[in-house]
Recover the amino acids of this structure.
């Protein structure tokens, strides 16, 4: 649900760069979304189709790179993907702590028409 | 022919929200106010916890900002107790964000040092994703919700500075595996204080009030700056 205002932010940031570079319009927005960020790529794409109309992003395509969350084992320090109801390391069976990996939520780049 | 250019920008999409949150937090610090973002599912007892804490902390001025999708039921309840409270209705939005809180603070105009509770929308998911200007995130969960919540909603547990396990008096009547719950909490957040509480009966509230008073002292010493 909160992807609506977030999509407005994405369009606003992209438009800002278009103006800064003196470009005509945005052709593509490359997003990076961690799967633990709480933001849903499909929802952003859905809102984008509606909100981008009449903006400098109207003809732009959204490309999303998804990042799998990883935990870091306190014992062997290896990074691993969690299973559904456990934070246990599959290698040494100690606990894994959350890392920043999987919480990404940023615009990596935009492609513009100069 | 058109010339296409790729511009690397690596821009945090939440940057505007986070900048406002940082400013709000700084303003609160300067005013000597400890701001607590109270998160939790609907019915977890967020308002009851806030009420019990304010009654316990008699020496400290307390303000509340109430976030709800609709209605002012909780605001009325708090005002009846003489607590200065401002209502935010998001009319559909599932969380409070930094611009919304900053606007509400203009209406509240807190004048004294103390503590400000910001009761977020009842939701165990989205509020954890947004900084709003708080010094502390307080998560209220209950034994009636089940012991699997840290595994299902990890971000709220990971980000919490204090976890209130409410309705602890109902433990004999519900299927709540405390060891499983605590293993999940400790996996996500090894140091967090987990306080067992029954807010309605004021059980366990004193310990939480002391913890908050200690944090308020830190604010007055500007250690959060």
């Amino acid at each position: 649900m909160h992807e609506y205002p977030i999509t407005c932010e994405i369009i606003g940031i992209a438009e800002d760069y278009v103006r800064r570079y003196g470009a005509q319009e945005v052709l593509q927005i490359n997003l990076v979304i961690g799967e633990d960020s709480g933001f849903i790529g499909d929802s952003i794409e859905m809102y984008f189709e509606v909100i981008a109309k009449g903006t400098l992003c109207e003809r732009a395509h959204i490309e999303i790179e998804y990042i799998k969350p990883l935990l870091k084992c306190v014992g062997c320090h290896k990074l691993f993907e969690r299973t559904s109801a456990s934070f246990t390391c599959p290698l040494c069976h100690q606990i894994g702590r959350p890392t920043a990996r999987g919480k990404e939520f940023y615009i990596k780049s935009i492609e513009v028409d100069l | 022919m058109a010339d296409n250019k790729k511009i690397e920008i690596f821009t945090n999409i939440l940057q505007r929200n986070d900048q406002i949150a940082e400013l709000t937090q700084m303003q609160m610090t300067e005013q000597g106010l400890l701001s607590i973002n109270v998160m939790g599912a609907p019915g977890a007892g967020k308002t009851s916890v806030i009420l019990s804490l304010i009654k316990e902390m008699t020496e400290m001025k307390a303000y509340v900002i109430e976030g709800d999708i609709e209605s002012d039921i909780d605001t009325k309840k708090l005002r009846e107790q003489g607590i200065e409270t401002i209502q935010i209705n998001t009319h559909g939005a599932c969380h409070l964000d930094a611009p919304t809180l900053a606007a509400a603070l203009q209406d509240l105009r807190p004048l004294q040092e103390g503590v400000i509770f910001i009761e977020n929308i009842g939701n165990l998911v989205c509020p954890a994703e947004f900084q709003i200007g708080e010094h502390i995130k307080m998560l209220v969960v209950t034994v009636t919700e089940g012991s699997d919540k840290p595994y299902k909603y990890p971000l709220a547990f990971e980000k919490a500075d204090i976890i209130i396990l409410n309705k602890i008096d109902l433990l004999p009547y519900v299927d709540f595996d405390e060891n499983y719950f605590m293993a999940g909490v400790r996996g996500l957040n090894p140091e967090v204080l987990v306080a067992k509480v029954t807010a309605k009966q004021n059980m366990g509230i004193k310990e939480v009030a002391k913890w908050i008073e200690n944090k308020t002292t830190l604010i007055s010493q500007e250690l959060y700056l």
